[in-house]
Structure prediction request, 698 residues.
Amino acid sequence: MNEIWDFRHWLSQNRREWRLLVALICIIAITLFLQFRQLRLEILELHQKAERYVIALVDFEFPDEEMTLILKQQAMQEIGQVYQLDEQEVKAVRLALEQKLIRSKEWREVSPSSTFEQMYKAADELETSLLEIRFSDPRTIGQIREMGLSTERYFAWIPEEGRSSTLPGDFWDSISEQMEENALFPAKTVQYVMLPFQEKQWMFKEAISLEQNLRVEMSKRVPEKLTRVYAGTRLLNPGEEITERHMVMMQAMKETLAQGRKFFLPLPILSNVLLASLLVLISAFYFKISQPLFLRSLQQLSLFVTVVILTLLFAKCVEYLLVHTGSSLIAAVRYPVVAPFATLLICLLLSPSLAFFAAAFLSVILSVSLAIDHSRFLILNLLTSTVVIISSRGIRKRKEIFTVCAKTWVSAIPVLYAFVLAENQWINFSFCINVGGTAVLLLFIAIIVAGFLPILESLFGILTDMALMEYTDPGNLLLRRFAMEIPGTYQHSLVLGHLAETCAQAIGANGLFCRAATLYHDIGKLGNPQLYTENQQGSVNLHQLLTPVESAQAIISHVSDGVALAGKYHLPSSFIDIIKEHHGTTLVYYFYSKQAELQGGRKEEVDETKFRYPGPRPKSRESAIIMICDSIEAASRSLDSADEHSVQLLVERVVREKAEDGQFAECNLTFAELTQVMKVLIKTILLTHHVRIKYPAR
Prediction:
């Protein structure tokens, strides 16, 4: 919190060197934005007809999905048919062999050195080998070997399709070698158990699942095909339908061009610095003529530049998303709305006139820098920003930000449709994409504006209408205390707030600010409420115990006490200014007169400085209005009859006395505005003091 107050104190200095520093920061930001811009190429729309020739500007390679798919299909064709023995037939031969071993002693004559257990295990080993073996052509087995897979259980041989056959002799030789190599089974034992399997006419089954797995694995190992395109090659012909392949080619060419760019060459940097400086300088001259107070305010200037920089960052993020996204739907958004982000923030935080300048300023910079259709982007962003300014007037609740963005989206639809008609079409897919993209962007703008708004309000000490409405909430901690402890002064503040708001609105000043500020202008009376007439009950009057000087000092102290209390509750600095200025340097005339009476009517012997408020005098129209309304509201309570003549005399007298005392010398309230304020005051007080009929007693 202390850091924020230090920052606000820095902003309040309004020194020229600090304003120049802010301008320099703005120049640097615009320079970087211009320097690191994306390349703008021909904008293509999927499935639309090309309007003109598109030529390759540079040699580049692009990931060719069509060729990659063809290569994958060719690789998959390298895997031929794979066969295996029928499991049921293998098990049947194995069972028959086992029965023969049990019933016949023939095996003992063939292999006298073998035991039954060896014969049995040899039969098991052979059965397992035959069930695991796969048969295919040599090319397929070679491809499997290249994939790094084991080919130990593969045998290069293809059976005749649809016919049973015996297995070739070299197959049995290899099986025999495998079983004998570990010296677990004698050769005669192996020959005996193999004999029924060798004589068998086998039916072969195609291993379809294995073939599919091998083909999938083969396709995965095919690298992505990069097709090279040479500069000058024709990418599109007029009337040719734009496909995904064309979109990928354009993106690859854009990336190649971007890689070849040199961002840190001195002359391009100098060019962008010069352009950014000219933009800022021209803007400064414009503000000097049309908004001189804004140009002299470090607070407002810093806030304006901050919003501009945030908008440039937001635009870069949107551009990156559109250019580098892998989604064809997102990439099809051709006219992103970006400027309304700055327009909405500046309109709420500063003024509509500054917001309109920002909209035009940013729309031009963004349209020439972003990788988009610049002319239509400029039109759409200017129109939507104008709608934002119109719709933002009178926003007093944060949720209304979403309503403004919804109205802006509705206004963007006919503009986008006009772009479709300009292409000699009634409707196209691009229109739907751009309408949806605009809705998403405006929703996102509403969310981030609602999030940034309180941060910027707090950081720069800006009071928006939404913040002012929050300060008028009766549930506010300080207002609750005010209403409970000094209800008389609180009621006076409520009435004064209504008067000040009405007068301010009549001359185009900030009426809501007047109403909110007047609720807090007398909070200093919380320190000793019984000193003030509106809070005195019965006949008790503490001033009877004090001298006129002491009474005057006690009354005057509510200003300094109010400033201290406002600081404790972190009220805005503009509210604190109202607390200081609402009495200006006026005289506490009642006690001044009392002191003069004690001096025998010799006013020259009275030290007038002890009876004057410390000031300062009102610095703004709102402060002057509150001063006038405060004095007249209090004085009107003493009127015996509130007719038009008496009220008019009262208002004219109070205003004349303030003017003659020099209280309006430092505010920019004109005579015409002062006259209008007086008329509104007379009318409002008459309405407030209207006479009711007397009801008969029961």
Remarks:
- The chain has a mean pLDDT of 83.
- Residues 76-220 form one domain.
- The CA atoms of residues 224 and 526 lie 79 Å apart.
- The chain has three domains: 2-39+261-460, 76-220, 467-688.
